[in-house]
Amino acid sequence: MNSDGIVRTGTLGSVANAARVLRSFTANEREWGVSDLARRLGIAKSTAHRLLATLTDEGLLEQDVETGRYRLGLAVFDLAAAVQPLDLHEAVLPPMTELRNLTGETVQVAVLDGREVVYIERLDSPHTLRLFLEVGRRNSAHCTGCGKALLAFSSPQVADRALKGWKLPRVTPHTITTEAALRADLDDTRRRGYACNRRESEVGVISFAAPIRDRSRRTVAAISVAGPAERLEPDELRFAHATMEAAAAITRRLGHPVRVSA
Predict the structure, then answer these.
(1) Is the pTM of the predicted complex or chain greater than 0.85?
(2) HEC secondary structure over 138-157
(3) pLDDT tens for each residue of 153-164
(4) Same domain (yes/no): 94, 41
(5) Residue-number span of the structural domain to which 180 is assigned
(6) pLDDT at 262 exceeding the cut of 50
(7) Inter-CA distances, 154 with 72, 116, 157, 175, 189, Å
(8) How many CB atoms lie within 10 A of CB 66?
(9) pLDDT, tens digit, for every residue of 115-148?
(10) Which CATH number characterizes residue 45's domain?
(11) Structurally, how many domains does the chain consist of?
């Protein structure tokens, strides 16, 4: 390592430094600012900025437009999926299809990215009145079924980090906007085994979601069934239980045996 902290070896120094940056992001340190990362790695601030900017251009990192801090990007998720015994995208499709066919409603799978969910798979409802959603779309975690399932069933530190200082935006008149109310909702979610979005992200739309776990029992995604409230609300338990069964099926495909109670 030279005077500005850059690794110099017989290998490519730029690759080694990029790897050091990526390894700095952990479950306890999910975001870094340029100055903080430079101090941690013992490199010049300008060097840290160049590394962060390059990794962001490649999709391995992304920058929060409000705070300026950096976090892992979705390209890292794709790389992580490549080392799974079964790719998450591959694992979700058969249970998703079964759930869509069983319920006749829109089914989607999302992953958590800080305070947002990112939808990575979707199957549309065959109904004329249906939701039109896009893969790659983001939404706030506090007002979505998948988001609340991910916050509730991940490690407690995940929810604590997200909730700390979070001013919950009101999206509809039904959106939860206080930390106390959201924590109570997450407690209810854990007790039920599934999360509910009751007109909180879109007026007239509700969804039920359940967590997907990998072989290490870590919650890595959530699956939800969503549709017009008049179709889903009268039969909540049927839709919710079908969603939990689909989540359990995906979890089993990822290598973790799960049984859903009747």
Answers:
(1) no
(2) EEEHHHCHHHHHHHHHCCHH
(3) 998 888 898 998
(4) no
(5) 83-253
(6) no
(7) 17, 14, 8, 22, 12
(8) 6
(9) 999 898 889 877 644 454 555 678 899 999 999 9
(10) 1.10.10.10
(11) 2
